[in-house]
Amino acid sequence: MAAMISAIDLRKTYGKRQALDGFTLSVDEGTVCGLLGPNGAGKTTAVRILATLLKADSGSASIAGYDVATDAGRVRAAIGFTGQYAAVDEILTGRQNLDMFARLYHLDRRRSRERTDELIDRFGLHDTADRPAGGYSGGTRRRLDLAVSLILAPRVLFLDEPTTGLDPRTRAEVWKDIRQLVSAGTTVLLTTQYLDEADHLADQIAVIDDGAIIAGGTPRELKESVGGDQIELVLRDEEQMESVARILAASTGSEPTVNLDRRRISAPAPDRFRSLDTTMRNLDRAGIDPEDIALRRPTLDDVFLKLTDRKEKAA
User: Fold this and answer.
1) Inter-axis angle of helices 138-149 and 168-183, to 10 degrees?
2) Looking at the domain that runs over 5-224, which CATH code has it been given?
């Protein structure tokens, strides 16, 4: 089956700066791909090229089988795009915004009203639909913006940092909306600065740095790539670090990692709870009472930091 989103060796230069340097990506239909990377890594440039808003210097890309360079019209008919900030008219009501955009998409008056009602119902906008959008909360504005991007029921939806600035409760509501879209068959390319967001939503993750993909896989695969469970301690007294490092090395059979600034020390724990139990017993015998001790699994934060740190050191 052909990929719904495909990019091969995309390159883009702004003056002397290489924004994309061989960017290659493939996303299957009905899945969410999280595109992660530090600021300036090339995320927005890649999305703008895939959405036909920008031309690549070289390479090729397609959406739903249509070439973004030679079939831009068909690509635009197949996609929806939601940027970092809600692009709605603050003077118009939510209902008027939806109706206006539907008419701009050349729906006739009857179909425009039908689609507006469908989207108001789908995104739970009944209570605010007839109020000016300028008075909406950030979460309601974002949901209206998502509704606008779905007027033509796109096969592919680009979400560029869709929950920036939203509180945790509202972010969770937007996540629910996105999952519903995917369950209905929409393919989503998501760029985000929130790694927990990618962990919750993405079927696959691609990490981009300096304009190229440096790692990819499912969230679980990426987390397993940086190691298994770890015992992590935070100490009350910095002078205990050396003693605790010896105890942790003996309990786990692994070389600990020490962060003096945070009084934090950690080591891989292949036996999980047995290693944790042995560590706690040995600390107790030594009369050491840590501020915190935990057995934790790697997170996408660990993946992101390790990958980008490795790349900086290689440079």
Assistant:
1) 20
2) 3.40.50.300
